[in-house]
Amino acid sequence: MDRDFLLTTDTARHLYHDVAVPLPIIDYHCHLDPREIYEDRRFDNLTQLWLGADHYKWRLMRWAGVDERYITGGAPDREKFQKWAETLSLAIGSPLYHWSHLELRSCFGYTAHLNGDTAEEVWQLCNEKLKGISARRLIADANVKALCTTDDPADSLEWHEKLAADGSFGVRVLPSFRPDRALGIEKPDYPDYLKRLGQIGSFAQLLEVLKERLRFFVSHGCRVADHGLESVPYAPATEAEVEAIFRKRLAGEIPAAQEQKQFKTALLLALGREYHRLGIVMQLHFGVQRNCSQRVFRALGPDAGVDAIGDRAPIGELSAFLNALDETDELPKSILYSLDPNDDAALVSVVGAFQSGAAPGKLQHGSAWWFNEHKKGMLDQLATLAAEGYLAGFVGMLTDSRSFLSYARHEYFRRILCELIGSWVENGEYPNDEKALRAIVEGVCFRNAARYFEL
Ligand SMILES: [Zn+2]
């Protein structure tokens, strides 16, 4: 994992080092805490930074048979780190192996391999360096131009406001509108959540409140919305039917499955139209089976490393949903992500069906995500997009991360992108045209996202 990690040809090395490396990062989807950025959080040790909230690492440790006490339990941080080092040292082929070592090199200057024997020297070195490292420093050093956090419509955006008012941090930290809880009509705490949004007695009022919150978000720089769905629903219903379903829920009854779907379809379509009107990008994430181990979910809550790839997304419903917005020319710029890589070819073809001259790459197939965020997953996603769509218009990588160290994932993506493009040039599938190659690499790494999100 040296300077030319993953770069096996002259073209790949040239494109990566000379074109990709200097470009800034737009992280248009992450889960960083704006409060921690505002307060410029510091970390006492590497365990806090690495294992504090990273369910990817927790999952790998469980797989290696590590006791939960050393993962999310009460073991001392140094002992947790030892278990992590021992686990990671054998994680051949795992992106966690690659990411962790890229992070050690770029953030701490450590170039050897982490294992049970080197854990002590890594612990000492990194904890010493952490005294001079903070959340803002990690973001700024990664050359991030803007990042979009993930926020509930009921959020006050207090920390975004403070960050915007504080001129000392040169990176734009913008909120993203994620109304999953407003769509979660089947959830037991739905009535409580509605109270957080305001006085809501009808579906029409819910919609008005959400639109008002969206305008508030936009006034704080929001450029993008995000929806986490099992699948994209399409079950049309009349206004009266949707109102009746909503009233049923207000009366304490959980609507039937088909009614839930009708409600979600109506709310998503209404929000989609509003995104279109306001120029907001709509992200649709689906294909996830959440909280598979209910035992772990009960103990630790969501995002604890016990999710999985869900069933295939119904492409017919997705297409009908997009068409319902497209019919009246109210389809917003949209990014579609399925967690199931088997959906990708179909998904890219649907994306292709709704392109228009309104914006280059108006619909996007999202970057390889979560369980697919590894070398093979990224190569597959990029190759499918290139084969069936238009790679040059791709908005590229996001971290989707809760960790301030995760900008190494952009480095990982850029290396893989340049290696793939380099291989096509070197085997004669595409000419060694410096101007065109630069345009493609600069576009995918930075410029397309800057244009698409208007940042
Ligand atoms: Zn996310």
Structure write-up:
The protein is an alpha/beta fold. The chain has 2 domains: 10-39 and 134-452, Metal-dependent hydrolases (TIM Barrel); 42-133, uronate isomerase, domain 2, chain A, CATH 1.10.2020. 50% of the residues lie in helices and 7% in strands. It has a 4-stranded parallel sheet, with helices on one face. Strands 1-2-3 form a 3-stranded parallel sheet. A two-stranded antiparallel sheet has the order 6-7. Helix 17 (344-353) runs parallel beside helix 18 and helix 18 (375-388) packs across helix 19. It is globular.
Helix and strand layout, with pairings?
Elements: H1 10-20, E1 25-27, H2 34-38, H3 46-51, H4 55-63, H5 77-89, H6 95-108, H7 119-130, H8 135-141, E2 144-148, H9 158-165, E3 172-174, H10 180-183, H11 190-197, H12 203-219, E4 224-228, H13 239-250, H14 257-278, E5 281-286, E6 288-289, H15 294-300, E7 308-309, H16 315-326, E8 334-338, H17 344-353, E9 363-365, H18 375-388, H19 408-426, H20 434-452
Parallel strand pairs: 1-2, 2-3, 4-5, 5-8, 8-9
Antiparallel strand pairs: 6-7
Helix pairs in contact: 1-19, 6-19, 12-14, 13-14, 17-18, 18-19
Bound molecules: zinc ion.
The site of zinc ion has 4 residues, from loops.
Reading side by side through the largest sheet, how are the strands ordered?
4-5-8-9
How much of the sequence lies in strands comes to 5-15%
Multimeric status of the protein:
single chain
Q: Helix segment count? A: 20
CATH architecture identity of the largest domain: Alpha-Beta Barrel
> In total, how many beta strands?
9
Poorly predicted residue ranges: none
In this structure, how is the largest beta sheet organized?
4 strands, parallel
